[in-house]
Design a protein that fits this description.
Number of domains: 3
Order of helices and strands: HEEEEHEEEEHEHEHHHHHHHEEHHEHHEH
Radius of gyration: 29 Å
Structural class: alpha/beta
CATH topology of the largest domain: Rossmann fold
CATH architecture of the largest domain: 3-Layer(aba) Sandwich
Distance between the termini: 105 Å
CATH superfamily of the largest domain: Alpha/Beta hydrolase fold, catalytic domain
CATH class of the largest domain: Alpha Beta
Number of strands: 14
Shape: globular
Largest sheet: 10 strands, mixed
Helix content: 40-55%
């Protein structure tokens, strides 16, 4: 009995020791597991920027420059990483920290900075045909003898959801709004000045399309944070969306786009001989007067027009658009953009481009109501996509398996932060000019741009309620090309000349 009890006691003791050991293992393993889970939730560290050295021959001289390619962390007030914004910065070798510095971005919203970068500003550009039309593949980059790097250092910013830029939380929507976008790009600019000690550089913004909306908003947003700009460059501008958004009850775009209809019809030789034989700018001045003096009040009166007044107005619209009087009358004198793009060349079974109305496309159904695609966009998207993806990896040495979102794909539903659907950042630009009367504004518009018509931009500027002294700070230039006027070689050259003069005169 004693031996049996002893054996039983030893068994119990062994079980007890075994259970204690298990508990100790679990107690020590649990924190380690928690640490691993916690570590898994931490965002991956941002890779170090990639720095490369290059040179280019411009104007018979060699220009050496450094390219820095990487991410800028965007954090909340508690220091939590919320997004990583991709950028490519070009700085001229041997220059000091007081050299002009320009931040560049494109539009969309949802477009990467690639268009201005590889189309006009950077030391490399996509080789297109001389008129800007699409070349046959494979595509190539060539040295850009019209680079703006001769005048200013350049930082190309991809807003969150474009290029390689990503929000840490894929469900985060705050970056996809008018105000959220301005705040995040504004924070990028502040951080770049901090990390590169460029606070005393003459500062510039250049935006294209929605990028002009962003630039105008940033000018007002950042001046309140102590960051004032020497100059803002707006390429194919849209600040007041009421001027370009076709909608029931909003006749404004119908009036402001009419001169662009005229320029397009002139280019495709669809105007009557009395207009077709004259220089484009002369024809446009007459079209502008008709739009403001006859079309606008005519649409305002609408069904109150007499039969003779309506007939006269229909005939004039037909004269300045190249469309038949039957089509104009059938559409109640209200010709929206999609209708014009399809109708102008319908007899040739062609449609015309939205970004650049010099371009023509072939639709599946020539008799249909709308275009199948924008031929001016399809002409530029493949060359810019292919060359950017090769350039950033092969020449700049930045490796990533992420898709570089050229246009769309990474941006969710956009919040315009307005109640009436018409965002307007022209007020922010006016406030920036009031608070910083030394700031200059340069506006570049293409006569064949149907996305942001030049006359709509003129209307917006005219209605900014600027003091005459401040109005002198705004200059405008026009180009016989489209939304991306720089894809046409002559416009590329002239745009560089105009930008260089603007930068020289504003710092």
């Amino acid at each position: 009995m004693r031996i049996s009890a002893l054996v039983s006691s030893r068994k119990n003791l062994g079980i007890t020791i075994f259970m204690i050991a298990i508990c100790l293992i679990l107690a020590t393993a649990a924190p380690a597991q928690n640490r691993q889970e916690s570590a898994a939730k931490e965002p991956a560290p941002l890779p170090d920027p990639v720095v490369t050295k290059h040179s280019i021959r411009v104007g018979g001289q060699t220009l050496g420059y450094t390219v820095t390619t990487g991410y800028m962390p965007i954090r909340d007030r508690d220091g939590k990483l919320e997004a990583r914004m991709f950028y490519m910065a070009y700085t001229r070798d041997g220059a000091d920290a007081k050299r002009p510095l320009m931040f560049s971005f494109n539009g969309g919203p949802g477009s990467a900075s690639v268009w201005l970068h590889l189309g006009a500003l950077g030391p490399k550009r996509v080789k297109m045909q001389a008129n800007g039309f699409m070349p046959p593949p494979p595509y190539e980059l060539v040295d850009n003898e019209h680079t703006w790097l001769t005048e200013t250092d350049l930082v190309f910013i991809d807003p969150v959801g474009t290029g390689f830029s990503r929000a840490e939380d894929p469900k985060e929507q705050k970056f996809f709004s008018l105000n959220g976008d301005i705040a995040s790009v504004g924070e990028f600019i502040r951080l770049y000045l901090v990390r590169n000690n460029r606070w005393l550089s003459p500062l510039y913004l250049v935006g294209e399309s929605y990028g002009t909306t962003r630039a105008s908003g940033l000018s007002g947003y950042l001046v309140e944070k102590g960051i004032a700009f020497n100059g803002i460059l707006l390429v194919s501008s849209v600040m007041n969306f009421q001027s370009v958004r076709f909608a029931d009850g909003n006749d404004l775009p119908l009036v402001l786009i009419l001169p662009s209809y005229t320029s397009t019809a002139w280019y495709h030789k669809k105007l009557g001989s009395d207009l077709q034989s004259r220089p484009l700018e002369e024809v446009l001045r007459e079209s502008e007067r008709f739009a403001m003096d006859r079309l606008a009040p005519g649409l305002l009166r609408a069904s109150n027009l007499s039969a003779s007044e309506r007939t006269a107005l229909v005939n004039e619209i037909s004269r300045f658009t190249g469309l038949s009087t039957q089509f104009v009358d059938r559409n109640n004198m209200r010709i929206e953009l999609g209708e014009f793009l399809k109708e102008l060349l319908r007899n040739e079974k062609r449609s015309v481009g939205r970004l650049d109305s010099r371009f023509t496309g072939i639709d599946k159904e020539p008799a249909g109501d709308g275009t199948d695609f924008d031929p001016s966009m399809t002409a530029i998207r493949p060359p810019y996509t292919a060359t950017l993806n090769d350039y950033v990896r092969r020449e700049l040495g930045f490796e990533s398996d992420l898709e570089y979102y050229i246009l769309g794909g990474g941006v969710g539903r956009w919040d315009w932060n307005v109640n009436n659907g018409y965002a307007d950042t022209s007020g922010a630009l006016r406030e920036a000019l009031q608070k910083n009367p030394f700031m200059k504004v340069f506006i570049a518009s293409g006569y064949y741009d149907m996305a942001t018509p030049y006359f709509a931009t003129e209307y917006t500027v005219a209605n900014m309620n600027l003091d005459p002294e401040l109005r002198k700070n705004i200059s405008t230039k026009y180009y016989e090309a489209g939304h991306m006027m720089y894809i046409e070689e002559n416009s590329l050259r002239v745009l560089k000349r105009d930008a260089a003069a603007f930068i020289s005169g504003s710092n």
